[in-house]
């Protein structure tokens, strides 16, 4: 029989969630003018209440103050008029894998998110213009390609915001992923887990949080060892040469001086080592079109097999954020100092890369960013809330490489280059310091109870490899004509600086008359992207516990930024289409009641570009000539994308609940070449994942050990063979296939 919940116990568990849970209700969405959807709009599986003998007044006060400051911090950056998809803590735990699932796997359950190789995701037809925020503070871009610097385990909840964004969001605007971090108040206690299974998967982790007086703290660390670090270039069950070792740490320390003042510090470390999987049976060929029939081909034939190459890549990221939050009557302020360092290093197979690609290149890139973000809210009048602030980052990027190439000995009768087997070494290196900055002001005006108008201006600039700036007007209108229904429409002018760390500073002339020569020597500097973005939609509570929404968008771009892999190092390089168009729509629905939850999303999108006007040396001359006069699909364009999921919790009112959950991801296929660049798509696919979690309260009957969880997860339940990339397309370096059926089990223990 359930015991009544002590009021203080309720505060302890629920206070930090009151605001985040409350924004999920349609009524509050109407008040704030935010269209919100969630995979489970209202339900969380209730845990068995725990009796509390005594709680001090000091502890009670700390919890209430923390909830108050959390609410005020969230009000600094509302998403008025945008589309927001929420993941509560319960939603994250219901996804197969739970906290063990990589962050991109969780985000694939949101509408408009397409899956790509190397763990990348694309939101609403953009490449990588995804902004990550921790507790509302933006994290500068880094160089991580394969791994996830941010762990799902560190998130208490998170949201994905898309659409016509208000003025406070700048730089990366395809989607804003805001992670509300765990802390010692809402996530006190510890948890140790071991997770693993197929393909040498071994994943131990540890987390602990607590609070004492005015301090609270939380830290989590894990280690990942497996043989599925990067997607398999073949459809086989196991990849060749795909070992990965990764470790991560994230910590959060806060000091609450009083009910109006809080200082917090967040730090993270990620270190990941990858083997690049091999693709057997590849032909030996490089820049020389007639290489296979040359004397050099006969000389090296048989000296190396593509199945035995040994290429590796290492990625490191460290970051820190120090924030001050202050309440001053009608004014709320948060100011943060941010620093991030990331590096990426590629080690080739010295002979294999030379034989297959004509260049064996040790490549290293790094970027260090530091800066400040300040946001201020002034509740000027009952109908007006004014917000303004700024972001500014100083960045230093360094790129260097040491390459071995064949020396060109002449040309054949057709004008093709010939090589005699002699090699030479080429060192290339560049470094540059620059900065990006943005400031904004906006007014949230409510002329009527059911109408909100949010309008403002944003000014952004970049002084790095490129130098440009822009003033961007933005406006969103939200109307709530009846209970449970919300309409919104908005326009935003966007300015997106090119990714500083991905703009190549290669000195192309050094590679002239070698096997490492590019297809052409055009190298116009990458420019900032400028967009007109239109978005409209509505959300409706159809029946109690059943919600649905529809959203449509159009982006008209000038100098649209895209990224691709060119060469063996898995280092993305940026380039521009002079003109770009992206349009699409999304439909999402969810139902949740008691032990049962179900949700589904599907989206249609088209992203096209015309005339590549920067970093042209990465492209074949024939492709450049065609694209200069024709619209083409960008390589990450996927026409149809869908996701769905559900869960059921049995015995939820006992001390041993059993949860069964499942998710689905469908993609109509990313682009590949046909007779024209990106003229076709890879075959469509659908995959299903299954999760089973058995929990036991106080299994060991001790005061120290609490809930125990046994977990079984199956990825790609029906073992579907599906292709993410075929190896052809603009900026596509190699084929990649999705993960075959993988069974993983684990045990976690709270204490």
Automatic annotation (TrEMBL):
Family indicated by similarity: Belongs to the TonB-dependent receptor family.
All copies of domain TonB-dependent receptor-like beta-barrel, residue ranges: 279-717
Record bears the keyword Transmembrane: yes
Residue ranges that the Swiss-Prot or TrEMBL entry lists as coiled coil: none
Classification via PROSITE patterns: TONB_DEPENDENT_REC_3
Subcellular location: Cell outer membrane
Protein name: TonB-dependent receptor
Principal subcellular localization: membrane
Membrane-topology annotation of the record: Multi-pass membrane protein
Lineage, highest ranks first: Bacteria, Pseudomonadati, Pseudomonadota, Alphaproteobacteria, Acetobacterales
PANTHER family: HEMOGLOBIN AND HEMOGLOBIN-HAPTOGLOBIN-BINDING PROTEIN 1-RELATED, TONB-DEPENDENT OUTER MEMBRANE RECEPTOR
Alphabetical UniProt keywords: Cell outer membrane, Membrane, Receptor, Signal, TonB box, Transmembrane, Transmembrane beta strand, Transport
Residues annotated as signal peptide: 1-29
């Amino acid at each position: 029989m359930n015991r009544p919940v002590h009021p203080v116990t309720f505060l302890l568990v629920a206070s930090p969630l009151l605001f985040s849970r409350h924004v999920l209700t349609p009524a509050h969405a109407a008040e704030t003018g935010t269209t919100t959807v969630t995979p489970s709009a209202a339900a969380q599986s209730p845990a068995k209440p725990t009796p509390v003998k005594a709680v001090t007044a000091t502890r009670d006060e700390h919890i209430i103050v923390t909830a108050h400051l959390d609410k005020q911090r969230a009000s600094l950056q509302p998403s008025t008029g945008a589309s927001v998809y929420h993941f509560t803590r319960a939603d994250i735990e219901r996804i197969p894998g739970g906290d063990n699932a990589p962050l991109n796997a969780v985000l694939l359950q949101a509408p408009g998110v397409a899956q790509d190789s190397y763990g990348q995701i694309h939101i609403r037809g953009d490449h990588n213009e995804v902004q990550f925020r921790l507790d509302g503070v933006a994290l500068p871009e880094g160089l991580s390609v394969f791994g996830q610097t941010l762990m799902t385990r560190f998130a208490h909840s998170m949201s994905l915001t898309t659409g016509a964004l208000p003025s406070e969001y700048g730089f990366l605007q395809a989607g804003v992923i805001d992670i509300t971090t765990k802390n010692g108040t809402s996530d006190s206690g510890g948890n140790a887990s071991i997770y693993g299974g197929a393909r040498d998967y071994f994943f131990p982790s540890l987390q602990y949080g607590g609070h004492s007086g005015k301090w609270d703290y939380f830290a989590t660390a894990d280690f990942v060892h497996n043989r599925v670090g990067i997607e398999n270039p073949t459809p086989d069950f196991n990849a060749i040469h795909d070992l990965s070792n990764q470790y991560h740490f994230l910590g959060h320390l806060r000091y609450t001086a009083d009910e109006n003042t809080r200082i917090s510090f967040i730090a993270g470390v990620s270190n990941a080592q990858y083997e690049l999987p091999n693709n057997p049976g590849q032909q030996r060929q490089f820049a020389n079109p007639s290489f296979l029939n040359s004397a050099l081909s006969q000389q090296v034939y048989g000296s190396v097999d593509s199945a035995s190459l040994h290429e590796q890549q290492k990625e490191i990221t460290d970051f820190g954020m120090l924030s001050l939050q202050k309440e001053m009557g009608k004014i709320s302020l948060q100011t943060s100092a941010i620093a991030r360092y990331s590096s990426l290093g590629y080690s080739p197979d010295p002979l294999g890369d030379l034989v297959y690609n004509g260049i064996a290149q040790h490549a290293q890139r790094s970027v260090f960013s530091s800066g400040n973000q300040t946001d201020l809210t002034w509740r000027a009048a009952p109908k007006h809330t004014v917000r303004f602030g700024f972001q500014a980052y100083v960045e230093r990027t360094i790129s260097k490489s040491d390459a071995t190439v064949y020396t060109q000995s002449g040309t054949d009768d057709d004008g093709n280059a010939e090589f005699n087997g002699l090699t030479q070494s080429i060192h290339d290196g560049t470094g540059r310091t620059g900065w990006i900055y943005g400031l904004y002001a906006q007014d949230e005006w409510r002329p009527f109870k059911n109408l909100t108008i949010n309008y403002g201006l944003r000014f952004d600039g970049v002084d790095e490899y490129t130098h440009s700036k822009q003033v961007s007007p933005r406006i969103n209108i939200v109307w709530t004509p009846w209970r449970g229904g919300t309409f919104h429409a908005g326009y935003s002018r966007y300015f997106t600086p090119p990714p500083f760390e991905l703009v190549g500073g290669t000195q192309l002339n050094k590679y002239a008359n070698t096997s490492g020569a590019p297809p052409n020597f055009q190298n116009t500097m990458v420019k900032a992207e400028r967009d007109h973005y239109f978005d409209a939609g509505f959300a409706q509570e159809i029946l109690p516990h059943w919600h649905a929404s529809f959203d449509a968008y159009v982006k008209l771009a000038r100098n649209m930024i895209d990224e691709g892999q060119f060469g063996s190092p898995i280092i993305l390089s940026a380039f521009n289409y002079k003109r770009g168009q992206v349009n699409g729509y999304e439909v999402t629905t969810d139902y949740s009641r008691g032990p049962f939850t179900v949700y589904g999303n599907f989206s249609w999108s088209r992203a096209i570009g015309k005339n590549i006007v920067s970093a042209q040396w990465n492209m074949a001359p024939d492709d450049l000539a065609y694209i200069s006069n024709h619209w083409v699909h960008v390589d990450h364009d996927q026409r149809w994308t869908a996701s769905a999921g559900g869960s059921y919790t049995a015995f939820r009112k006992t001390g041993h609940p059993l949860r069964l959950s499942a998710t689905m991801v469908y993609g109509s296929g990313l682009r590949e070449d046909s007779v024209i660049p990106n003229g076709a798509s890879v075959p469509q696919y659908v995959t299903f994942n299954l999760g089973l979690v058995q929990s036991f309260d106080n299994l060991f009957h001790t005061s120290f050990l609490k809930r125990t969880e046994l977990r079984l997860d199956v990825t790609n339940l029906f073992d579907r063979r599906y292709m993410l990339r075929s190896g052809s397309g603009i900026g596509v370096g190699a084929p990649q296939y999705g993960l075959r059926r993988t069974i993983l089990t684990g045990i976690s223990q709270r204490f």
